[in-house]
Design the sequence.
């Protein structure tokens, strides 16, 4: 704890917390979109459970930091390069995000929904939680490796992750509500997830992509969409198809 209270420790804590919040935005958006498939109380429960699982996974990976760093060593060679455990996780997570985001975009725009009673099934809630858990593994691994690169003290890294997760817990409901109220933002968020999936696949294949370019593109697209929303206020909004929109909470 004394390491955190030094000037260097506080600067590292503030910097790492800000970085973890930025990296966690993807996680919050993904959880918000998945939780949107549930109704009322289940949405809030899934959001909170997803973020708590994400925090638990990050802290757990910090305790197993030697194992995490061991994931960077090649397991085998393919296509002229070594493939590590981290590469396989990023590749799998990226493909999952691409498939999920593509399906969600199709589901919102093209699919006809007739089974409005389905969201009440407990199995659907746990299927959503399992999907959140799977993508939490990918985002947590990326988050922890970034944290280790920025700080070398466990207390600083753990506190930064707790603080960033508290910020995300407080903001998750607002983010989820905003995404749900604005269909065009939901499609844009899904496009962001698609872009992040492509980035993860590229990282898994050994092609490093500077995340600053990705986040700048996402920020610019969101800024343009905010301007479009301002001009569309007096027009009838687009309505996306929603599988469970007729169900009473």
Sequence:
């Amino acid at each position: 704890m004394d390491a955190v209270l030094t000037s260097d420790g506080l600067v590292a804590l503030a910097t790492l917390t800000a970085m973890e919040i930025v990296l966690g935005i993807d996680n919050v958006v993904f959880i918000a979109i998945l939780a949107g498939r549930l109704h009322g109380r289940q949405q809030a429960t899934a959001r909170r459970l997803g973020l708590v699982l994400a925090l638990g996974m990050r802290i757990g990976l910090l305790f197993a930091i030697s194992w995490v760093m061991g994931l960077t060593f090649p397991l085998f060679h393919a296509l002229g390069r070594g493939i590590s455990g981290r590469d396989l996780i990023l590749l799998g997570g990226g493909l999952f995000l691409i498939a999920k985001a593509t399906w969600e975009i199709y589901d919102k725009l093209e699919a006809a929904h007739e089974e409005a009673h389905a969201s009440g099934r407990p199995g659907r809630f746990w299927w959503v939680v399992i999907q959140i858990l799977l993508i939490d593994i990918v985002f947590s691994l990326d988050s922890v490796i970034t944290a280790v690169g920025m700080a070398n003290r466990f207390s600083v890294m753990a506190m930064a992750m707790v603080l960033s997760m508290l910020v995300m817990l407080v903001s998750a409901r607002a983010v989820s509500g905003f995404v749900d109220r604005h269909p065009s933002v939901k499609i844009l968020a899904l496009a962001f997830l698609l872009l992040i999936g492509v980035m993860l696949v590229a990282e898994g294949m050994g092609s490093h992509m500077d995340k600053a370019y990705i986040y700048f593109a996402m920020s610019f697209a969101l800024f343009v969409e905010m301007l479009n929303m301002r001009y569309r206020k007096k027009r009838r909004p687009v309505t996306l198809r929603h599988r469970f929109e007729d169900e009473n909470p």
The two ends are 45 Å apart (CA to CA). Confidence is low (pLDDT under 50) at residues 115-119. DSSP finds eight helices and two strands in the chain. The beta strands are 74-78, 81-84.
